[in-house]
Amino acid sequence: MISYAIQRLFVAVLIVLLAVTTLFVMIQFVPGDPANVMLGPRATPELKEALRERLHLNDPFIVQVYHFFIGVMRGDLGVDLTSNRPVLSILIEQVPYTASLVLAVLLIALLGIPIGTYAAVHRDGLFDQASGVVSVSLIAIPPIVIGLYLILIFSVQLRWLPAIGAGEGPWEIILHLILPTLAIGLTWIGYVARLVRASVIEVLGQNHVKTARAFGIPTRRVMRAYVLRVALPATVTVLGVSIGFILSSAVIVEILFARPGIGKLMYDAVISRNYPVVMGTVLASTLFIVIATTIADLLNVMLDPRSREEG
Amino acid sequence: MEQGTSTLSRQARIGSVLRTLCSTPLGAISLLIVLAFFVIGVTADFIAPYDPVKIDVRAKLQGPSAEHWLGTDQLGRDVLSRLLVGTKVACFLAVTSVSIALVIGIVLGMLAAFTNRWIDWSMLLVFDTVRSFPTIMFALTVVALFGPSVNSIVAIVVISTFPSYARLVRTQVMSLRNAEFIEAQRAMGTSRARILLRHMLPNVIGPVMIVASMDIPLVIGVEAGLSFLGLGVRPPTPSWGTILNDGFSFIRNTSWIVIAGGLPLILTTVAFTTLGEKLRDILDPKLRK
Fold first, then answer.
1. Of A197, B34, B56, B99, which is most buried, counting CB atoms within 10 Å of its CB?
2. Residues B108, B123: contact at Cβ < 8 Å?
3. For testing contact with chain B, the best of A148, A247, A281 (most B CBs within 10 A)
4. Residue B73 and residue B250: Cα distance in Å, rounded?
């Protein structure tokens, strides 16, 4: 177990290094001088030279990567080119917005558990079939379409919920979270429902569960003692591994709802070619994902040693 | 296994798969929508009732009518025609990016399974790195560096999907490696390359194609998302994402553009996913989770 954990951590660190290095390589291939792009055509050569010096653009590639990681170790992610503020403090400001959105999505995704369990117990019934079709649809439809339709229905037509910004004060913040959370979360309710349904059906077919039922133990107790105990950890694990996808949708949804957050920050940085901020957001999100997937992975191995084998 | 399958029996097999598929209404409808997607994608320019970029300001932001079935947008362009022509972009992206990703995935997956452990291990690391990175963040980075274009979208989709194909192919090849018919070939002195191409490939291509067909919704979603953000297909070229963007700007005046613009996205993504799941259940019950 411990050697497996060390191996996973090693891979996690490698993944972060590889992702950031790849980004550096890609920046090398950008046509044109980054200093030129960032300062615009009217900048003087001295200004450009100063910026190049500050960003270590004149150094060989390996040295740039080195400087970046040394900076990261010291908590220095560079400086925002437009506002001149440290990238780290900008990130720290934006993280709570994205984190609360991701957390809310994870929470409502759990609604899939009762849906999936009910569908599995009443297999091939009307509810099972209907929820199957709805789940597959929710999984397939891109979050941007779900988001637009939600805005259209609940914000434009019914005027029940706000569609812009993050709100201030606890009540407003919750109201502003509802539509973005649904835009991403409906997909995951469907996903979890399907997953739970499949694993509950599998467990129900196993001998120890059949025996328990044959002994006349009430279904409710069988479910709690044997079935959900197996199905729930699997769900939590899958959700952990899926953090990357959730974060991906969060970028689009943040922009759609004009919500502050890492996604919006990255989008604005991309539009204005603010490379230090792009690097910072990439590093932050990769770290976040790698940590989440590693924890989920370790959790999974602890609960189910079979998964240790490489698939 | 696949060896010696004559053309006749293969035709018969495809026929029986199609029959099973169409035996449920969901399967039949999905197949129909998927076929329509490709047909419209190829013939869009001929069947669109209006020129999709022709501006007619006097007719702007109209609701559905006999002339404009799905209404008009802020410049008076016919929304139905724009959606039909937008299918062309979606179809092109789906076909090109998924096939490129498939080829790369199959080649790398077979290499990983058939070369030494170090190459295998480092490939797995690269695959996992790519997979651990969120598609949209990666897409934003690519667009930041190379600018918005259809080629960027293809590159984004290829890079973010080929690792899962490669991993699947690798697993399949590894499990086939000790199958009796492969050992028989090896005993007969058949070369590695020939075993891979003639005997392994036909067996791994089916499952990976199904997984790939289920990734088409992802392609469509990436295009819609990026174009919506103004980072994909550029206006005035109609694409499903740009149409949604037009609709979003005027969502408070007329809801028609957003409603109509979302429909083809919903239909195709749901149809491809349903079709993929049904095919998988019919062809390879083992893959079912």
1. A197
2. yes
3. A148
4. 9
